[in-house]
Request: fold
Amino acid sequence: MGLTDHEIQHVARLARLRLTADELPVIRRDLNRVLEYVSQLQTLDLANVEPTMHVVKSETPLRHDQVEPSLPVLEATRNAAQVEEGMFKVPRIMDSEGGGAGE
Amino acid sequence: MSEAFDVIIGLEVHVELKTASKLFCCCSTAFGAPPNSQTCPVCLGLPGVLPVPNSEAIRLAVRSALALNCQVRPFSKFDRKQYFYPDLPKAYQISQYDQPLAEFGWVTIHPSGEEAKRVGIRRIHLEEDAGKLNHLGQRLGDAVGSLVDLNRAGVPLIEIVSEPDMRSAEEARLYLTELRAVLSYLDVSDLRMEEGSLRCDANVSLRPHGYQGSLEELPRVEIKNVNSIRNVQRGIEYEVVRQADMLKRGERIVRETRGFDDSTGRTYSQRSKEEAHDYRYFPEPDLPPLRLSPEWIEAQRTALPLLPDAIRRDLRSRGIPDKDVEVLVLDREAYEYWKDAAQAFSDDRLIVNWMLSDVSRLIHLRGETFATATVRPAQLVELLKLIQEGTLSGRMAKDVLEAMFETGQDAQALVKQKGLSQITDEEALMQVVNQVLETHRHVVADYLSGKEKALAYLVGQVMKLTRGQAKPDLVNRLIKEAISGSQAVSS
Amino acid sequence: MSNRLWTEEAVRLHEMFVAGKVSCEEIVQDHLEHLAAVDPGIGAFLHVAADQALAQAKEADRWSTEERQMRPLSGVPIAVKDNIVTQRMPTTAASRMLEKFYAPYNATVVEKLYAAGGILMGKTNLDEFAMGSSTEHSAFHPTRNPWQRDRVPGGSSGGSAAAVAAGMVPIALGSDTGGSIRQPAAYCGIVGMKPTYGRVSRYGLIAFASSLDQIGPMARTVRDAALLYHVIEGPDARDATSLPLTASPPTRSGPWRIGVPREYFQEGIDPRVGDVIDRYLRRLSDAGHEIRDLSLPHTRYAVATYYLIAPAEASSNLARYDGVRYGFRCDARDLVSLYERTRDEGFGPEVKRRILLGTHALSSGYYDAYYLTAQKVRTLIRQDFDAAFNAVDFVVAPTTPDVAFRFGERDDDPLKMYLGDIYTVTANLAGLPAISLPAGWVDGLPVGVQWMARPLFDNALLDAAQAAEALMPPFQFPQEVRE
Ligand SMILES: [Mg+2]
Ligand SMILES: [Zn+2]
Reply:
């Protein structure tokens, strides 16, 4: 029940990684070894076990609604490869890319 | 509806909360600042940063949920919703997935001529807003690139997901209008669709009569990010016709996301859901669960203001006509204006009449609102009192109101300054004259039979009623005209 | 003054500086010279901040005695693992992706180091984004084990471990997600502690697996580790998972009930390592402590659990490296190509492997079987420890099943590498504090022993470790760095 090349390409696409044809066999072998190893967890009876999402703390603290100074725009954009008018520049977005504000 | 299907509509509404700082960092949320001037390591998604939730955002979200009749969960958690897009700095949005802040609410809508109807609210959750993309070019499709401004990234949002309970574009409009009215009384958001602080996506599908499957399985079209309530309605109307035509032609409706073109009134395909995102939700490891004590939640409920339905009941009980009640309720500023005025004045209807006619006309003309109107409620009341006690006629009061708006002065001052009063106002004086003639018919008869002294008596009566402030020769002329006029009519 | 200041403990350097016996500049100068002499053969540092360190030292020399006293790290040079963000030095996480990255802020722990008067000597090497157990997976260069240069120092905090073991600094910060402080400490013969999850702020630690990551001290003695730990511990308003200050649970001065989990001596352990630990346990027993056999039955599932949770969280944490706001960027004509090419060229193979694994574990249809299942097994592992700590004060076990391996030895099979983490990942999964101490030698290579305590018992753990340390010979520098 290992992952096929097609499935691995799907995962790579989700992760925005590009896998070349010669990388694929090694990746497939490594991933499938690990997945086979972790499949041992399926043998445990976990029906009545709660997951541990937070190991020690069980409640988030909250902060006061107080504004503090932001970074100067030059600092905020200083590490960016391409900046225009104080904004981060990205190349053309294809229609199929989707995404968008506040999904 | 004579068609062979029902229209099924559900709405997802995003509301930006009116906090001073962002949801997970201390940057300002103020609108309109220079690009990226309200960003910090946290909202830029720099390596190593962590989120800390803003307590005020949670308070406002809970307040909204309670006002929308939701059950607020004492335990909810944050999750990461993952997708790559340049307006999403961490490549995940901190949101709430399977245990949202609140569930099971409703909004009551009042379709005209029909019974009130409940539209269910499935859930309300908290999440952070994304940044803003400025496309270099006409449209996304032919842009050569885009510029990313992250000032909005991290601004707190609530997402309000309705049940698919609406059956027409009109019901969707009513739902949105009512939702916005409720939220406006809570003071939780600016609610400006044009600035993006209120956004709506509409899910539209057609259910053929006799369809047995679940609503979830119906092919659904999502109209995204429409910028006004009117356009949500137009988009849905267009979409219903488009899908009905397809069904008639025997075509299959595909599940997809569509945009709305304001200029043509049409929706257009953006992306098909077949290649939908796999958001890979998982619990946000950087944030332990949000716990709210039942006592605190109850305290928020107690702190809720009067909401539209209660306001409606109150206004109707005061004899204000339904049509006017709706106008007041749906415009919180107008209602607050009325409320302030009504505290100092007994005739509720008279206030409403003036507000919805002359005051309304003047503020629109001047680009003001009820909240910013030059003439404040107390000043309007003062003017209405002058009418009520007979110092000003309605006609004169209109002029005085205009002058009040122009000069910002009080009614009393203007009346004094311009020497305005009932006395120089023929129309108003005429009322007094008519009243005197009416009550002294025998004196009028005497005058008509030639007794000149009778005229002097009538003039005296008018002078008495106007406390001696009318000009006797004007009164003289008006009485003569009135008597001869009534003679002309009766002859 | 001693002319071999670099051999001194942090505690001693601080004392000498406070007493005015030596200037901070002399201390820093001596360490910089030693560093310059030995690091070319070891490669512990990615960035040496000599000028800044000297400037800091000169400023410290102007402090009054009271000021020096008030700052617990005054006079002490420190190295910082390069996945901890520093404003005045580059922060790369040993990745090409961040090769030219300068952060506009300091990690909370870095702020605390400065406030305590510590001298930041520079940034140390690691496996890229802390993913690895050998520091071979640094995008820039490997780090060598100071004891035998053809062997790895362990990882991912291999740079910090090697720097401390070779005397370049007395103390250093590391980070531990599945053993990344304790395993290199064991391989390099030093002390390394992973505090209770939440005891030390993670703000400014470049996230690998958020629910497991924890910053901790590395040193040549327990009291130096404790000195550094007490500077960095404490709640942080910027980290919602950091713990509020609670009174330290009362510490028993011993003798202790020491639990030895039998699962840590089964399949895969190098018998020579097993022998060292047996002898170590005998010393404890001879010193009057009670040694008890116990079972942590879910230990065998720990690596599988860890290698689902950690990559899943990593795949999410590393999604932000897209070439848009910072970091490496490949030019491309459209957005998807920008993302894919940037991430393809910016990340190394081990990082990509884990991103793929983690993305798969969270993807539609697999979440329940993988991530959720792993988090449930995590509960069972925690419960094992809860039960154990009802019966004993501490759990003691080998830190690693082996000693430092040769370069390239574990390259062919990632699973083999992952299995090396078997004894350390449990503490991360259970959130509890653990410390690795030198326990002996196998063929001239150090062997580490690990002490674990229940969550929040960090101080008790340090006290016990210090007492246990006295049963062992003191630290000696490797021959090659002694000159
Ligand atoms: Mg949303
Ligand atoms: Zn910010």
User: Anything to note?
Assistant: DSSP finds 15 helices and 16 strands in chain B. The longest helix of chain B spans residues 229-248. Chain B touches chain A through 72 residues (CB under 8 Å). The longest strand of chain B covers residues 5-16.
